[in-house]
Structure formats: C-alpha cells, structure tokens
Amino acid sequence: MMSPKQLLTTILIVFSTLSFIKLLLLTHSSAAASSSSPARPLRSPWDDDRSGGSGNGTAIHGSLAAKELALLRSLVAARAPCRLLVFGLSPQLLALAAANSGHGAATAFVTDSDEDADGARRVLGGAPGAAAIHRARYPDAAGEAWALLRRARASPVCRRPTGTVRKSGCRLALTSLPREVLDARWDVVVVDGPSGAAAHEPGRMGPIYTAAALARAAAAAGGVEVDVAVHDVDRTVERWYAREYLCEDNLVAAKGRLWHFRVAASGGPSDAFCSTGPVQIL
Fold first, then answer.
1. Per the domain annotation, does 20 fall within a domain?
2. Cβ distance 88 to 190 under 8 Å?
3. What is the CATH number of the domain that holds 194?
4. How many CB atoms lie within 10 A of CB 192?
C-alpha cells in the first residue's frame, strides 16, 4: 500500500501527463486548421468603399463616429466653396472633399502614411479638381507632448504669430510642409492625424499648433473667421493643445470626440493665442 506522499506524487504525475497530452492534441488541431485554411490577408480601409461612420453613432478608436462625420460634413458644406486643409487621411476624411465643391474650392490633405496617400490617389483617380495630397514627417512622438508644451510656453517664438508660419522659429510649427500649404489662407482646417494613439507614435502637437497659427494668420490677413476642428479630444494631448492654442473661448460646437473652434481676427492679446491664461495641466 502506497504512503500518502507516494499517492500524491502519483496523482501529480498522472495530471501532468494528461495536461501534456491535451496540449499536444490542441497544438495538433491548431496546426491542422492552419494548414487546411489559407491565411486571410489584412484588409486595407481603402478596400472598402464605405466612407461614412457606423450606423449606431459609435466608431472604433481612431475613426469618426457618424455624428462626428456629420458635423464635419455640415461644417464644410456651410463654407463651400472654400479652402479646406485636413491633417490626416482616411476614406472618411476623403469624403469631405466631395462636400467642398464649387468654383474656387480647394482641398488638401497632409499625411505621414504612404498607404493612405496611395489609397486616396487610387480613389481620386486623377479626377479634375481632385484634392491635393501632401506627405509629411512628424518628428515628435506623443509622449513628448508635455515637455514640448513647457518649452513652447517659455519661448517667445512660439507665441501668437505675426507673420507667415513658414518662417516660424517655433519647434511646434510644421515648417517643412510645402509652401502651398503654409502660404495659403485656409477657411477650414481639420486635425485628425497623425495617429498619436501611443506614446511612441507621432503626436498631433505640431498639427494643432500649426492649424492654430494658420487660422490666426488667415483671419488676420483676410478679416474672416476660420473654422478648426480637432478629433480625438478624449485623449490628453489633443485636449491640452486644443485648449492651449485654439482657446476655449473659440469653442462653438462639440460632438462626441470632435471639437469645433471658430478663430476670428480680433480678440485676445496680440502676443498670445488665447485671452485666458495657460491651461493648468494636472
């Protein structure tokens, strides 16, 4: 008769053996399933011709919900024909080009993605009056947002611009963009790129600052209001920078994760973006 210690050892051996056999069976079944069914290639968003938001008003992270896309479309349509600049590029955003129609309308997209640039060009197909697509490289990761903002607050060159954005000495200004972007007077600017979804990914600090600077310059030069929309304001970086440079006083509408600002030529001190003090970051 086995002692309790021997019995326990035997039970452990039996259970270990059964677990090992089960693992082998699962591995074999998984391998057989993989060999019998070919791998399904990853789909590109440009393979799907549906450019609207989801039907129930929600959206996966990074895409526009139906109500957010509706706000953007109505904003562009109300200003059309206008000059529309979009940081970011997706089938949803490309649909804004169709809303901006009429004599004198111009639409430009800025993206850091080769895939999105190529996909958009396939959709546009070289159509007359098609939107312009510009490639950009964003040097700063989202994880650097606070350090950049702290330095910008202490730097005179990052205050409210008085001249062309192209000649700005501020680190946040995207001065490497083409002259046709930086020297144009835009009526509507949308910021929904780059991704900025993780700390190591390119962040939207530069696009938001540049959008605000372009809006201020255009408003001052033409005496008109400029509409700026920022997406993903549920994220800290977008919320910080939108409040810092587009100003809560200018916030006129919000839907879901989308904020709509209207920047005028007048208002606020001449050397600052906002009339209120800097946003306190806790």
1. no
2. yes
3. 3.40.50.150
4. 28
Distance CA 64, CA 233 (A): 12
Residue 254 has pLDDT above 60, yes or no: yes
Q: Which of 224, 252, 216 is nearest to 74 (CA)?
A: 252
- Does 248 score more than 60 pLDDT? yes
251 HSE (CA, 13 A, CB side) = 14
- The DSSP line for 87-112 is ES--HHHHHHHHHS-STT-EEEEEES
Q: How confident is the model at residue 222 (pLDDT cuts 50, 70, 90)?
A: confident
What is the Cα–Cα distance from 274 to 257, expressed in whole angstroms?
22
φ, ψ dihedrals at 11, nearest 5°: -65, -40
State the pLDDT at residue 60: 43
Q: Is residue 24 part of a domain?
A: no
Strands laid side by side in the 258-263 sheet: 132-135, 106-111, 83-87, 188-191, 226-231, 258-263, 251-255
pTM to 2 decimals? Answer: 0.79
Number of domains in the chain: 1
Q: Rounded mean pLDDT of the chain?
A: 82
**E strand or H helix at 190:** strand 188-191
Note whether 162 and 149 are within 8 A (CB).
Answer: no
